[in-house]
Write a structure and sequence with these properties.
This protein is α+β, with helices and mostly antiparallel strands and about 475 residues long. The chain is built from 8 helices and 22 strands. The chain folds into 3 domains: about 210 residues, Sandwich (Immunoglobulin-like); about 100 residues, Neutral Protease, domain 2; about 130 residues, Neutral Protease Domain 2 (Neutral Protease, domain 2, Orthogonal Bundle). Helix 2 packs across helix 3, helix 5 crosses helix 6 and helix 6 packs antiparallel against helix 8. It is globular, with a radius of gyration of 22 Å.
Length: about 475
Amino acid sequence: MRRSWLPVVLSAALLAAACTDSNPKPEAADSAAPGVSSSPAGPDYSVWSAGRSTPVADPLYPNYGNPNVDVLHYGLDLAWQPETKTLTGTATLQLRAAADLTEVKLDFSKAYVLDGVTLNGVAATGTVAETKLTVPGTVAKNAFATLVVKYHGTPTTVPMPSHRSDAEPLGLTVTKDGGLWTMQEPYGAATWYPVNDQPSDKALYDIAVTVPDGWSAIANGTLKSQDGNTFKYTATAPVASYLTTLAVGRYKKEAATGPHGIPLTYWYRQGPDDKALPYLRKSPQYLEWLEKHFGPYPFDSAGVLMVPSASGMETQQMITMGLPDYGNDANFKAGFDADLLHEYAHQWFGDAVTPTNWNDLWLNEGWATYAQHLYTNERDKVTAKQWEDWARGVDTRLRKNIGPPGKPKADSFAESNVYMCPALMLHQIHRQIGDAAFFAMATDWAQKNRDTTQDRASFIAFVNQHTGKDFTSLINTWLDSPTTPK
């Protein structure tokens, strides 16, 4: 998620006012215990094995997600009618029972009417209460099942649990002209499809969206086809639910090519987004810079989707960006450039490697913020010493006002302490081991843990093993101290 440091930025010349246990790689879906069978319908669930996860209950937002369900794949067939503001959907979920189930319980908005539910091809009675969809049915531990939910309704958002100046309602937002867009971290995917809305359950996605003539539909993944007014997207790498995106509107589309042939797509609204276009077109340069420092881009396509938001979000393969008020043209040029680099950095840190739970949001934002500042320091000719002196002042204020980054508050999601404070912690490791060792470690963290979820314990173990030094105390101190460590 974007966190602009403007108007507090570094100039080129000076500092001035102007940041549980780890999951292994997914096992094959056919590795269930002997005697455990799939659903009576008998599909080959191994084709979705890359979506296998080890879900855990989230300690920060325990009312969202279900650790007893592991969704392997979401097939979403959606249609949007702007005139009536009606979203019609059929969600087909292939899932694994992580524990013996007598019901399948997922997150879903009560704004929708259920038009039909089946579990393994048998009609079921689903109910939606508060934020939960409940479908009775027995599924043995490690067995597989297919859940199909048909529904329709008008999307409604939920409040974001944060005091950020750019905080907006979470989930699928309906615009005045009948368009759609969404940003949904830490939860909010449930405002448009039934979902296990927690970061530890990553899954594969196929999304088809039908829209009226002259409208476009954009989702995360790669656009595989457009059949008439139906846009079809596929994500072949597992995605955490908060990293999915959807937008419908009268968009313009521009295609480009990134490093070693990566297909890039920019979706924008002619007029409102014109000043962002020069930076969208810099995407190949952003990716080249990031690949130089952190290894190959981890997905098979990339792009940017512009929406009428005050923020930005690292939605997987298709970044969702708004145009906040930066104050003046100079701040816009510096700030939007840095923010877009930040969201691209998340494709390595947060998307390819995702935190197991929301206590470890610092793993996303610390890395992306440090990458952002390495980039802007290089751009603006700011020395590491100048940056650290400035960053320590910011860190001190954040710890005093918000608290340490390793102990986030549920009502203060994604506030500045989980950005700058862990970025400065990474800088301490960087200083001690030097450029070559640090960027080798960063590359291996992103590449070797690709498509998994990780946490503080696994990060500490990785750093210690990779460097041959014990950074346990340094990392824990920087994450937990109420004051800036010396």
